[in-house]
Each structure stands twice: as structure tokens, then as C-alpha cells.
Amino acid sequence: MMSMLTSPATITVTVFGVAALVTLGGGIYWLFNKRARLRDIAEMRAKLDELEPSDPEYGAVRALYTSMVLDAERWGFFAGESGSGGHGGSADHGGSDHVGDAGEGGHAH
Fold first, then answer.
1. What span, in angstroms and rounded, lies between the C-alpha atoms of 7 and 17?
2. What is the domain count for the chain?
3. Could you list the residue range(s) of the whole structural domain that residue 8 is in?
4. Is 88 helix (H, G, I), strand (E, B) or coil?
5. Could you tell me which of 33, 32, 38, 64 has the C-alpha nearest to residue 51?
6. Ramachandran bin of 7, using left for φ above 0, alpha for ψ from -120 to 50, beta for the remaining angles
């Protein structure tokens, strides 16, 4: 019995089996995590739409929403929703938002 467990073929199959299970588990976790994060982003966007810029918590909700969207873009959660591959990627979208925010801040002073 012990000689069967120590054969190179058995060890190789066991290592590949464990690696496959870990990969499968990671993929399933990522898929459910993606759905949960997209749902959370949608809920945060709805809350942001309900608030007025004069509300005290508007700034905090906007900052949290922006952070969530940037994280989602970084992890590729929006890759399937962009449509064409020539969109320019998330760096272009994130850069345009940042420039617009800086421009608004400059006009407010």
C-alpha cells in the first residue's frame, strides 16, 4: 500500500488534481465576487442619485462610489460591458473622470 502512494505517477496526478480544484474554486469565488461587487456598485449609484450635492453625506458617498468603480475597472469587472475592444481601456476612462473632477475643482475656487 505504501509503495503505491509514493509512486511518481500518483504524486503527479494528486498535485495536478489539487491544483485544478484550487483553480476551479478561485474561478467560482471570482465570479460570485464580481456579481456581488457589481450589485453593490449599482446600489451605491442609486443612493448617489437620491442625494443632492448639498446633503452632508453626498461627498462621502461620491468618494466611496468612485473608489468602488475604479477598483472594479482595475479588476476588469467592466471588460465585458465596454462593447468594442478599441474603447481604449479603463485607464482612458479613469483618466477622463479624473480630469473632469480636477476641472470642476478649479472652477469652484
1. 16
2. 1
3. 2-77
4. coil
5. 64
6. beta
Residue 98 is assigned to a structural domain of this protein: no
Name the pLDDT band for 23 (thresholds 50, 70, 90).
very high
Determine the pLDDT at residue 21: 96
Which pLDDT score is estimated for 17? 94
Residue type, 44: M
Torsion angles phi and psi, residue 28, rounded to 5? -65, -45
SS3 state at 21: helix
Residue 23: inside a domain: yes
> Which whole-number Å values give the CA distances from 98 to 37, 48, 67, in the listed order?
22, 18, 12
Residues 16-26: what's their mean pLDDT?
95
DSSP letters, 23-83, are HHHHHHHHHHHHHHHHHHHHHHHHHHHHS-TTSTTHHHHHHHHHHHHHHHHHTTTTGGGS-
